[in-house]
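User: structure tokens for this one?
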Amino acid sequence: MTSKNNGLSAALVSNLQDVLSKRKGGSDGSAEEEEPPPSTSVSVDVAAKEEIDDSRPIVLVTNGDGIDSIGLVSLVEALVSEGLYNVHVCAPQTDKSVSSHSMTPGETIAASSADIKGATAFEVSGTTVDCISLGLSGALFAWSKPILVISGINQGSSCGHQMFYSGAVAGAREALISGVPSLSISLNWKKDESKESDFKDAVGVCLPLINATIRDIEKGVFPKDCSLNIEIPTSPSSNKGFKVTKQSMWRQSPSWQAVSANRRPGAGNFMSNQQSLGAQLAQLGRDASAAGAARRFTTQKKSIVEIESVGVAAKTDSRVKKYFRLEFVGKEQEHTDEDLDIKALEDGFVSVTPLSLLPKMDPETQAAASEWISKALNADQ
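Assistant:
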């Protein structure tokens, strides 16, 4: 294992040896499935607070894939089974995996109670960052600062520049902004190769590191100026160990596909459009300028002509609507630096990358951290 130019503390990384020996341990995390009770929606301004009589450290879990995703459920079940933590969940109601650091100001956010055995859970009609901001605000829970925020387990890699798109990484970043230690965890999911049981294996890989992180936080030795992004290889149970890495410049390529006008979005998008229209009407009501509101209304009344997206629109006085769909496409890239996150991941290692809110860490801090990490990793070899 190698490291350089990273911000992990020696005390934290020394626990990686325990992780290596336990990584095949897995999590039994088997909880009986129960019929979830009807959820109850509450608005943000009505606090859903409960008395906390549990002295165990509080862990707040979120993700980008949505509260029902197998990655989050598997992680929460394992944390609950540990019996060491008071587990709370505040996660998006729907998939927000590429929402980045977006928030939803000026709109009412609904938080509905969700049934995850052993945890206090809410699903939120907002982004991952909304969830963390709300969860840490004191408005939803009776506390405002858990010992640790964990965002994941995300389905798909968040290495390199994918971090800037990732809702999961953004959730951990929002916690760091708020002064709370955080981890973001992703599984390098591959279509036609990965399976749902891989998430339970991924939990078994990262759970000892989570425990080590919380122990170091309680000891006051966990670094306060960085979050850790953990990338788990496609076959978690056969990983080659942990490697402290640097963020690469890798990313999947965005591919915009033109969609024919006769293949318009379905009912789900139709409802979304109706909500957007409602938001527009609400904006009209809030518009202080009667003239501005009149101009907006007139613009909305103009006829809209739908055309084939694959063609070039002819000149017209009418507004034109075209349809497109975005997909991210993986591309083969050669990575030669062994310390890059994507290289370690492709080679079968569990990549651990420290992330800072600063564009670049202080050189002296980098050098000291690298020395501490190297000594810790080589101590028992």
